[in-house]
Amino acid sequence: MITKRDGRKVEFDGNKIRIAVARAYWDPDYAPEKPYPPYVEDIVTYIEEENEAYDISVEEIQDIVEEFLMKFDPKTARKYVRYRYKKEVIREQKDDFFMKLKPKIEASDVQNQNANIDEYSFGGRKGETDSAVMKEYALNYCMSDMARQNHENNMVYIHDLDAYAVGMHNCMTIPFDDLLAKGFNTRQTDVRPARSINTAFQLIAVIFQLQSLQQFGGVSASHLDWTMVPYVRMSFAKHYKDGWTYIRNCPPEDIDYEIDNMITNAQDYSIDDPEWIAYDARAYEYALDMMKKELQQAVEGMYHNLNTLQSRSGNQLPFTSINYGTCTLPEGRLVIKALLEGSIKGVGKLHRTPIFPCGIFQCMKEVNRAPGDPNYDLFRLALESTARRLYPNYANVDWSGNAGYDPKDPKTYFSTMGCRTANGLDVNGLGQLKDGRGNLCPVTIILPTLAMMAKEAVEAGPSGDGDGKQKSLLEFFFAILDKKIGEARDMLIERFEYMCKQDPRSAQFMYENRVMAGYIPEEGIRSALKHGTLVIGQLGMAETLEILIGSNQCHPDGMELAKEIEGLFKQRCAEFKQEYKLNFGVYYTPAENLCYTAMKKFRSRYGIIPHVSDHEYFTNSIHVPVWEDVKVLDKIDIESQLTGYSNAGCITYVELETGIINNIDAMETIVNYAMDHDIPYFAINVPNDTCLECGYTGEFNDTCPICGSGHIQQLRRVTGYLTGNYKTAFNWGKQKETEDRVKHTGRMES
Amino acid sequence: MRYAGIIFDDTAAAPGLCLSFYTQGCPLHCPGCHNPETWDPDRGHEFTGNTMNDILNGIKRNGIKRSFAVLGGEPLAQYNQFLTAMVVQNVRQAYPGIKIWLWTGFSMDHIMSSMKSQPHIKIIFNNVDAIVAGPYIEAERDISLAYKGSRNQIVWHLDHEKNIWYNEENDKRYDNV
Lengths: 750, 177
Prior knowledge:
The complex is a heterodimer.
Chain A: E1 2-3, E2 9-10, H1 14-26, H2 40-53, E3 56-57, H3 58-72, H4 74-106, H5 122-141, H6 145-152, E4 156-158, E5 172-173, H7 176-182, E6 184-185, E7 190-191, H8 197-212, E8 219-221, H9 224-248, H10 257-264, H11 274-279, H12 281-306, E9 320-324, H13 330-345, E10 358-363, H14 376-389, E11 393-396, E12 439-446, H15 447-459, H16 473-500, H17 508-512, H18 526-529, E13 533-539, H19 541-549, H20 556-580, E14 583-587, H21 594-606, H22 632-643, E15 652-655, H23 664-676, E16 681-685, E17 688-691, E18 697-698, E19 712-718, E20 721-725, H24 726-729, H25 732-740, E21 748-749
Helix pairs in contact in A: 1-2, 1-4, 3-4, 4-5, 8-9, 8-12, 9-10, 9-12, 9-13, 12-13, 13-14, 15-16, 15-19, 16-20, 19-20
Chain B: E1 2-10, E2 18-23, E3 45-46, H1 49-59, E4 67-71, H2 78-94, E5 100-104, H3 108-115, H4 121-125, E6 130-133, E7 154-159, E8 164-166, E9 173-175
Parallel strand pairs in B: 2-4, 4-5, 5-6
Antiparallel strand pairs in B: 1-2, 1-3, 6-7, 7-8, 8-9
């Protein structure tokens, strides 16, 4: 028997030796029909004899062949050795590749690149392994050298590389109004239109999950309060009919024609329609009561569903977000109230803070901002929920960047994905419509790398860029940045074209049900994809300013330069949008993993530079660094000067203390201040430590102050979303960032 | 005159966003006190005209009117009364409409029975809207309470029309000084 490399034992096969030697002998003219070299039988016989004595190994056979050839045919020997070496290299590459997968398959080196993915689970291990293979494939076979080099050299990062090769897109604001009203098809069946609030909320969870499998990013509802109005009415009418028949002890056929007609067409009649009370006040009260109970159950069901439904091979929850807050109809107001009360109540036995959906309260002037506004009470309730649960966040319907929206159409109100990604004005005819649109893919320019390149160019002297003149650091930087913004555009176009080549059957739910707006089957999926956004993100503004001028945007000179940089981003994206008729946009990237991996690469090249690479992470986009000691409203002042440059999504946070639960007035001042300063999307971080024994929530690190338990979940925000315990779910860089976060209120000064 | 420090954007000492001024020096020394570094009347910083300006400007920073709170230390300790009176009077004159809160370790009973004749108490009590009164008692500690540290403390509000101090926890009322 022969012992193979992997330890298996197989029968000796002399032909393998004959062919290997013939290959070397005839190289490069080898062909199977050519005769074997005359001395081959001597080698084979010799090895056969050796093999009878013991189980000879493949390596030993090759040694024997090599020695024999060196003695009798040195020319062939040289070729044989070369051939053997080449095979070994290939074998090692294959080994290397598989060995890289090993820690992912075994979950032995979990990095928590994305806090929502359970990398320890079977699904997670399989998913992470797939992802590594797909990334390698995408880099090698799907993109230009320019794109690959930008990515690998820490200059322009391609996000979600593992989804590149199959041509998946990122995220989607789901047109729930249509899907609930018309029903939809799935692979196995079709689903009828919703006819009650309970069903409607169940379908929200089902559709969120189905759509999240068609793409790699998040899913959102842009105006859930308005969406639910008809279903609140239908439930109300159903209960009205039941109540009437029960109270009157009459069959439902006895209901008067007019009222029966209202019941049949319930979606057209307000629950406040005086006819309901006039016809039967008891039935009205019963219906209202039962409908509210059903609504509350339905909302609680949705919260539980969205925190339990797993997707993408069972290793993550769909990233879900719901926008609401502007509907002043009685039904919409009830929905908003139920959503907020559900959020405050929490999920599970201990009423824990729901991780999903990310709630987003849409602030709107004259609707919910000030005392006297019809939904002001709901704004106050939202603030209370935020103080306790970190959600909702706040979207600014009056944001100047959403100009051109239709005040009569909530589908055009400013809404956002929980992370921050937003659908701006469509260059291909859909205007400010949010539903049915999403981001296709982002790239992120790693600004500190470009700043270091500029620095190196300056140090290289006048010949730095060949024109013989000495440019300043800033001139070099802007030249490099402009070039990289152009390359970022080309990288996005490459990927867009790649996406457009996919078969609509790859995302049948999305295309068949017109989840993605604008799809015309005869024209192919480009007809739909062209309404999505292609976004150029950025990382590390604060560190870049430190490299370039030694101060960051908290100081006037830093701010001035930051504006100049953002101005270039904005101007170029606007030009690209018109020139290519594609929705290019400036994006303030949620660099959850990149903030850390880009820093690791940066350090390995440039080392630790004070104020630049002395933290474990880069500061995301244009944010004031988390360690900066700034006051709460000052932080809003600073960031609001830069958020206006981004039309594809940005977020501003402030860090408050848990005691804020007792001071909703202060919350109101802060949120209104952000809205008045034209911040598009605003979130408040309040430490949320939950005792897993008694359920007490507050800030207390490792021991519960109520029951003394050490079984604590420490919930913190990452990239707009919440996640489980940050100490186990966040990557190392984000853990450090979280620990560096300075509170923006409550610090004593003298 | 010495003071301990200022929190320019505070959310814990009074409703709304608030500027909190901490006096220096306290005779009470409650066990478990949150700020024992404010006990020694000789520590902290010298209060100057600039400090007063910082307070007045801080209240309206960012174009937003804040509430104002005086804490300690013990703002009603004899050696702090003048400073407390001056500060609340100045703040009141500059911002007639804002809420001013005072935190003291003395109980309202004690103040009304044996302190109200002290020289600056009248000025203080006629320029504040609410008083958090009572010593901090470790055994009564409850971190979930609004505007107090222990259950025994009481938040008194001034009914400006009747000139009476009232609270929401019991029926006791005091005429203003």
